[in-house]
Design a protein that fits this description.
The chain has 11 helices and 9 strands. By secondary structure, it is α/β, with parallel strands linked by helices. The protein has one domain: Alpha-Beta Barrel (TIM Barrel). The protein has an 8-stranded parallel barrel, surrounded by 10 helices. β4, α5 and β5 form a beta-alpha-beta unit. The two termini are about 30 Å apart.
Length: about 290
């Protein structure tokens, strides 16, 4: 169909009581697989490029963003492009004139007042450029530089604080800490579904679940039913790709053409992404 805006997809899902899945991509093959999955499922999708992914590409997001945008424009599904977990001011500035229609500014590791001040400034600047803005409040585990448990005392998003944060910053969506964590290789996360429902009732902006690769299907469905609107997934795709590549190379140690092992890897990523789109993307009646 076309490259569309994140705002369009997320606000549509928010009104319908459903969710849109946002997949983090690192390579062109990731982007192609995610788009194919959206076409197969007949559902929209958000393609995300993180600050960490831009570091992999030499600190520049332009090449991979341009490639992902080209894939999106040729897709038979609606695809949006999102800059994820941006912390560097320079990267945020670069994103203002790019294929991205939205950014997630991550100051969640800072003290509350600093998070508010920095997020408010970024949101104002991004809104002037027409970008939709997501921020984070609370602690979503799994990052090497923040090794606290996602279940430790005081790390969950406080509803009163969340209401104040959204009002003070003007963000369009809020990533909340409800028990998930980043980079999980096993789907054993335990979500606080009651907290999700409370946050959904108290806030006037969509909720975002980070670290969703580690959440079992039944809990993903429960999270959407309780009020999650944007579901972020990355590690699950990397596991699928790496497992496929390992199998291809183990089957034939004479292979040197990357197309031989990247083609089935891309297919496996598309299969996993399609499954997760179908788990999260159907309409939920509350």
């Amino acid at each position: 169909m076309a490259l569309v805006s994140s705002r369009e997809l997320i606000e549509e899902a928010y009104r319908a009581g459903s969710a849109v899945v946002a997949f983090n991509v690192i390579t062109l093959e990731h982007a192609e697989a995610v788009t194919q999955a959206a076409e197969n499922a007949g559902l929209p999708v958000i393609v995300q490029i993180s600050e960490n992914a831009t570091r992999f590409h030499g600190g520049r997001f332009e090449p991979i963003a341009a490639a992902a945008a080209a894939v999106a424009r040729a897709a038979a599904a609606r695809v949006a492009l999102h800059l994820d977990h941006a912390t560097e001011a320079g990267l945020v500035g670069d994103a203002l004139n790019s294929p991205f229609s939205s950014i997630m500014y991550d100051a969640g590791a800072l003290p509350y007042d600093d998070n508010v001040a920095r997020t408010r400034a970024v949101a104002a600047r991004a809104h002037e450029a027409g970008l939709w803005v997501e921020a984070e409040l609370g602690y979503v585990g799994g990052k090497p530089d923040a090794p606290r448990s996602a279940h430790a005392d005081g790390v969950r998003t406080d509803p009163d604080e969340a209401v104040a944060f959204v009002a003070a910053t003007g963000v369009d969506a809020l990533a909340v800490a409800v028990g998930s964590r980043h980079a999980m290789h096993e789907r054993t996360a335990r979500l606080d579904v009651d907290l999700i429902a409370t946050l959904r009732a108290r806030l006037t902006v969509p909720l975002v679940l980070h670290g969703s690769s580690g959440v079992p299907d039944e809990l993903l469905r429960a999270a959407v039913a309780a009020g999650m609107t944007k579901i972020n997934i990355g590690t699950a795709l990397n596991i699928a790709m790496t497992r496929s590549v390992r199998a291809s190379l183990a089957a034939d140690d004479t292979v040197v053409d990357p197309r031989v092992y990247l083609a089935p890897a891309r297919e496996e990523v598309a299969r996993v992404a399609e499954h997760l789109l179908r788990v999260c993307g159907g309409e939920v009646v509350r």
